[in-house]
Design a protein that fits this description.
The protein is α+β, with helices and mostly antiparallel strands and 254 residues long. It folds into 3 domains: 41 residues; 99 residues, Protein of unknown function (DUF541), domain 1 (Translation Initiation Factor IF3, 2-Layer Sandwich), CATH 3.30.110.170; 105 residues, Alpha-Beta Plaits (2-Layer Sandwich). 41% of the residues lie in helices and 36% in strands. The protein contains 5 helices and 8 strands. Strands 1, 6, 7 and 8 form a 4-stranded antiparallel β-sheet that branches. β3 and β4 form a beta hairpin. α2 packs antiparallel against α3. The radius of gyration is 35 Å and the shape is elongated.
């Protein structure tokens, strides 16, 4: 009986101890939020937009080379187009372009029809094979060499020049940090003009980043017929690109 009474009193004491602990914890949380509400009472929200831009020259060129052939059989058309593309690939590799920087971006073999105006209907002509590769290089002079070789080999066209950055993540992060600093400066200027002090930042919104092209370059993509009488390699100019960032920050001020 004494043992049961002892356990009963121990349970009561444990219950009281837990209850007291919960009470003091609740009181502490309540006082914390009351203090915070008191601090932010009468505060205002300042919303500012920061912007930044970096102009940089791309250091990576990517472009497409296409060979198209029409023959009476699909095999002939495919073989003819592939032979031309393979010669261009071999040339690019011999100049130091890595395997990973050359890829087949499109390949198709299909029936080819032409419109016969006299008969008023389409007529089967043969089979058309289209073989397209994409090549990347950091060397603009090498890109010019490959373009010239492609046209000499009989490629149908060279197109879709893309001017990129090898390390665009670093540039984007840099321009975003610049935009954040711009927003902070604007927030301080606004707070000073209003005669208030910034308490803390309450939200952050990333408005997006580039790169966005700046049109400071020009080039013309020629097909095989236009290149037939040209002996000079095409000159490829990289120009510049603008990488932009916009951020919106909100601050609590009083």
């Amino acid at each position: 009986m004494k043992i049961l009474e002892s356990n009963f009193y121990k349970s009561i004491l444990a219950f009281l101890a837990v209850s007291l602990s919960l009470f003091f914890m609740s009181k502490a949380v309540y006082e914390f939020y009351q203090a915070r509400l008191s601090l932010e009472d009468g505060a205002m929200t300042l919303s500012v937009t920061g912007e930044a831009k970096i102009d940089a020259q791309p250091d990576l060129i990517e472009f497409d080379i296409t060979a198209e052939e029409i023959e009476d059989t699909s095999k002939k058309a495919q073989d003819k187009a592939s032979k031309k593309i393979n010669k261009i690939i071999d040339f690019a590799k011999s100049k130091g372009v890595d395997d990973k920087d050359i890829k087949t971006s499109y390949f198709d073999v299909s029936k080819y029809y032409e419109w016969n105006s006299n008969k008023g209907k389409r007529e089967f002509v043969g089979y058309k094979a289209v073989n397209r590769i994409s090549i990347k290089t950091k060397d603009k002079d090498l890109a010019s060499e490959i373009v010239a070789k492609a046209m000499d080999t009989g490629a149908s066209n060279v197109s879709s020049f893309r001017f990129k950055f090898q390390d665009d993540k670093t540039l984007k992060e840099k321009v975003k940090q610049m935009a954040i600093e711009d927003a902070k400066r604007k927030a301080k200027t606004l707070a000073d003009s209003l005669g208030v002090s910034i308490l803390r930042m309450t939200s952050f919104s990333d408005g997006g980043q580039g790169p966005y092209p700046v049109l400071r370059r020009s080039y013309k993509v020629l097909d095989a017929s236009e290149m037939s009488d040209i002996a000079v390699e095409p000159q490829i100019e990289l120009g510049t690109k603008s990488i932009r960032a916009t951020v919106t920050l909100q601050f609590l001020a009083r």
